[in-house]
Amino acid sequence: MADLTALRFRNRLYYVLLAAGGLVALAGLYAVHMMESHGHIITGMNNQIVWGMPHVFAIFLIVAASGVLNVASIGSVFGKSIYKARAPLASLLSIAMLAGGLTVLMLDLGRPDRLMVAATNYNPTSVFAWNVLLYSGMFSLVAIYLWTMMERRMNQWSKPAGLAVFAWRFILTTGTGLIFAFLTARQAYGSALLPPMFIVLSFAWGLAVFHVVQKVIYAWNEKTLDPAILQRTKNLLGIFVIGSMYLVATYHLTNLYFAHQSGFEHFILVDGGVYPTLFWWGYVVLGNLLPLLLIYLPGLGKTGCVVAASLLVVAGAFALLYVFIIGGQAYPLNIFPGFTVSSSFGDGQIASYHPSIYEFLLGLGGLAIAFIITTVSVRVLNFMPQDKAYIPD
Amino acid sequence: MSDLNTQRRQFLKTSLGAAAVAIAPGMLLFDTAHGKAEAGSSKVRWGMLIDTAQCKDGCNDCVTACNKENGLSGGTAATDSQWIRKIELKDIRSGRELSLPMMCQHCEEPPCVDVCPTAASFKRADGIVLVDRHRCIGCRYCMMACPYKARSFVHEPLQDQKPDVPRGKGTVESCTLCVHRLDKGQQNTACAEACKNKAILFGNLNDENSEIAQKIRSVASVQVRADLQLNPGIRYQGL
Ligand code: SF4
Ligand code: SF4
């Protein structure tokens, strides 16, 4: 009887969660409607900060979507059984986040109604256009991969499918990095380090999201995760966090090395107001150091700590992307080296940006889409990791 | 080296030909709008020579003329379109001050065209870089890529547009070198015409007898951010 009550409660909770996700998604749609009828004037974006909060959300989702597949790859490509058991959930999360991220990107366009134009007029030299191919390819590949894992008769194909996904997501995140790396005239971007930096960041962000979702699913099913398994994935998260910090540091150090970039670095790291704050406190302290402590400090590192660490990594990701995308545009383009400049169009000035509620609603709408896809799928299909008695491999 | 250059140019021309086929529908729309059959020939490369010594600090005549010609509001809020703007410069070392107009530089190797996912940004055979407003999806990648910050995004619905100058909310726009005038056979842009000090000289860079070509041969002029090797069609004198 008690069981039944618990079941009823969980059923109800499921619908409440779904409704909450739906509401957030609806709020996102409302924001889109407002942006469509009033134009981008109601956002905080302008002619200096042309990409804003929606892009922070979208790029987080897309990068994490690629990184979460790491869990699957370690399983299929390197044959580690605890990861293999988690490959379906990781693939599902990837599809869900990719869908959420792409929706945000598309609905932020000035003319989202012209998406067909983008599909039919393809400019082969545009990194953006390559990314459209990369994203749709990733969708199909991961869907196929999921199918080979979920359908027993297809199991034999799951290894090659996993390999294909493994390769594809590297290219995909490289493509995301290239969007910025090709902007050679901007001090913040145009660095060959960006693609590898994004790849390592994707590992950390993806695994962090995975930890959180896994925790929720285990709690939902009233199961506890084998501490030995958690031990291994949390160490991996630690390594990814250290790795990404290393690449972010290298990116800034190489910028400092080039004299013409030092003004920009000074801005981002020292006197740029909200950007250095977000960088040091948001990204470095909250997003890296604190999670590392939670993971590695003796006595810590239990489930709760790992989930907290993962949530912090995600928060740090948003801080870093904000600094990278918006701070990168706020610093004035150096059109006339050797001159101080001023104009009516923001030349020589730090551009200001105040994200509006509509941008947040749109971004949160993307998160909600990812949430709904995950929740519904986990409910109707079996994505619960099935661990055999633990064998170290 | 120059041989290589000619080869490269030849290649570019061929690819331009191919590109022209690809963008023909947009061009057709464009041309019927102005009643002219051929859209610029590669014998022409439109460009400008801007003499900063003649350009007066505080004078805004070119900007006003551009706004009027193209139906821009003239507002200077961060969300308003500015196709041309006056920049006041001060040499950090010598303290020398100067003033100049800045607009789309009509690059020969335009990054905005390279990055545009839908090929809405394109370069005509006569070197003018334009945005096809029927094709632009408003992604703003070209604004990120332009080294001169020459482009504006239309943030609001527009009223009272000029029939000759199509614009639209949610799309990106920039200086067209008054292409609507040129295609009607006029030989000057609104900004150059408006400058009392004759600081802007407009003309065909490829015609060696044109005033602009002759002047470029005889006076020292530079391209802004020449290090990026985009070969802009706008050159500056006295910078
Ligand atoms: S100045 Fe900017 S908008 Fe104009 S052609 Fe060059 S890159 Fe494109
Ligand atoms: S905003 Fe328009 S013109 Fe610019 S890159 Fe995007 S589609 Fe092309």
From TrEMBL, chain A:
Coiled coil: none annotated. It holds the Pfam family NrfD. The chain crosses the membrane at residues 12-32, 52-77, 89-107, 127-148, 160-183, 189-214, 235-258, 278-297, 304-325, 360-381. This is Molybdopterin oxidoreductase. It is found in: Cell membrane. Keywords: Cell membrane, Membrane, Transmembrane, Transmembrane helix. The keyword Transmembrane helix applies. GO terms for cellular component: plasma membrane. It comes from the Bacteria. It is a multi-pass membrane protein.
TrEMBL record, chain B:
SUPFAM superfamilies: 4Fe-4S ferredoxins (SSF54862). The keyword Metal-binding applies. The keyword Nucleus does not apply. Residues 127-156 form the 4Fe-4S ferredoxin-type domain. CDD domains: PsrB. GO terms for molecular function: 4 iron, 4 sulfur cluster binding; metal ion binding. InterPro entries: 4Fe4S_Fe-S-bd, 4Fe4S_Fe_S_CS, DsrO-like, ET_IronSulfur_Cluster-Binding, TAT_signal, TAT_signal_bac_arc. Keywords: 4Fe-4S, Iron, Iron-sulfur, Metal-binding. Transmembrane segments: none annotated. It holds the Pfam family Fer4_11. Signal peptide: none annotated. This is Tetrathionate reductase subunit B.
